[in-house]
Specification:
By secondary structure, this protein is an all-alpha fold. The chain has four helices and no strands.
Amino acid sequence: MLFDFITGVMKQYALDRSKIESGRAWLGLLKKITTIIFIFTVAFVLRSVDVFEQFYIKTILSAIIIAEAYSIIQNIYCFRTGQAVKEVDAVTFVLQKI
């Protein structure tokens, strides 16, 4: 998640430096923190009720890791080419499907 944040700032720097603002950065960090809280909450609940927690935890973590990797690759592409692409919030997409 840290690499996604860093590459996101790099992407924005390459596309439009005027849009790099501390408020947007804080919002992005808060979104990352809430994702981590979500993961730990689900893990805690599944462990508490003893319901196949290993399968679900691995599935959720795998989906979020793939979503973060997609976002990082997209950010690097934008940074290197200087071209904006349609942004998809992959983590939110994954969380909506759970």
